[in-house]
């Protein structure tokens, strides 16, 4: 029984060799694999090339077209927060916060569409692209023409609506409605300009 115990103790320690002397280092394959990978990861994290690509990627995610949407989203966030605090904490809600949040949400939809239009990330059925083959480019041109027409129709309809209701004021805010219509018109004009530019690129044979 003592012989079995001593043999088990020698074999249970992976850092001891057959003579019973403790080894000063771990197995070379395991050590090189772990240390080599961690060293390479650290080198990749702090190389100028990767850090430069990271900075470039941040610039790709944010542009001048994102500023209107960020401003509207920030205003909407604080308006909804104020509405929540006054209604459920102070039990004395501000009536204008609900209407302001509704108008800001409408404005956010149009300003956010600028970002989607610029990067061509609007929701669409992308699985159709794999079935049309060489007809994909003409279909993209047709879709761009239809989208441009839709934006133009929205722009014209909003202009008519603004002219007919420009005298009306908001219910709980001391501002006329044409302030909101003017901002929406500016967003729609920008959308039409972006869509025309992408359509021109498609017609020339490039990618939108």
UniProtKB/TrEMBL annotation:
It comes from Aliiroseovarius halocynthiae. The chain crosses the membrane at residues 61-85, 139-158, 178-196. Residues 77-204 form the Tripartite ATP-independent periplasmic transporters DctQ component domain. GO terms for biological process: C4-dicarboxylate transport. Residues 1-34 are annotated as: Disordered. Pfam families: DctQ (PF04290). The keyword ATP-binding does not apply. One of its GO terms (molecular function) is transmembrane transporter activity. It is found in: Cell inner membrane. PANTHER family: 2,3-DIKETO-L-GULONATE TRAP TRANSPORTER SMALL PERMEASE PROTEIN YIAM, TRAP TRANSPORTER SMALL PERMEASE PROTEIN. The lineage of its organism: Bacteria, Pseudomonadati, Pseudomonadota, Alphaproteobacteria, Rhodobacterales. Keywords: Cell inner membrane, Cell membrane, Membrane, Transmembrane, Transmembrane helix, Transport. Belongs to the TRAP transporter small permease family. It is a multi-pass membrane protein. The complex comprises the extracytoplasmic solute receptor protein and the two transmembrane proteins. Part of the tripartite ATP-independent periplasmic (TRAP) transport system. It comes from the Bacteria. One of its GO terms (cellular component) is plasma membrane. This is TRAP transporter small permease protein. The keyword RNA-binding does not apply. Residues 8-27 have a biased composition (Polar residues).
């Amino acid at each position: 029984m003592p012989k079995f115990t001593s043999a088990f103790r020698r074999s249970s320690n992976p850092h001891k060799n057959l003579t019973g002397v403790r080894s000063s280092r771990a197995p070379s394959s395991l050590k090189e694999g772990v240390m080599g990978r961690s060293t390479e990861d650290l080198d990749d994290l702090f190389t100028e090339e990767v850090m430069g690509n990271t900075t470039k990627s941040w610039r790709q995610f944010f542009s001048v077209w994102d500023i209107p949407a960020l401003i509207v989203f920030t205003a909407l966030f604080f308006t909804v927060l104020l509405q929540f605090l006054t209604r459920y904490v102070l039990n004395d809600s501000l009536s204008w916060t609900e209407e302001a949040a509704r108008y800001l949400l409408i404005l956010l939809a149009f300003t956010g569409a600028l970002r989607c239009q610029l990067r061509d990330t609007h929701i669409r059925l992308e699985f159709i692209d794999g079935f049309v083959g060489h007809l994909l480019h003409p279909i993209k041109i047709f879709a761009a023409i239809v989208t441009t027409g839709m934006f133009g129709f929205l722009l014209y309809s909003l202009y008519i609506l603004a002219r007919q209701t420009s005298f009306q004021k908001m219910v709980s805010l001391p501002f006329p409605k044409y302030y909101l219509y003017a901002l929406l018109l500016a967003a729609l004009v920008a959308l039409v300009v972006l869509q025309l530019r992408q359509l021109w690129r498609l017609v020339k044979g490039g990618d939108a």
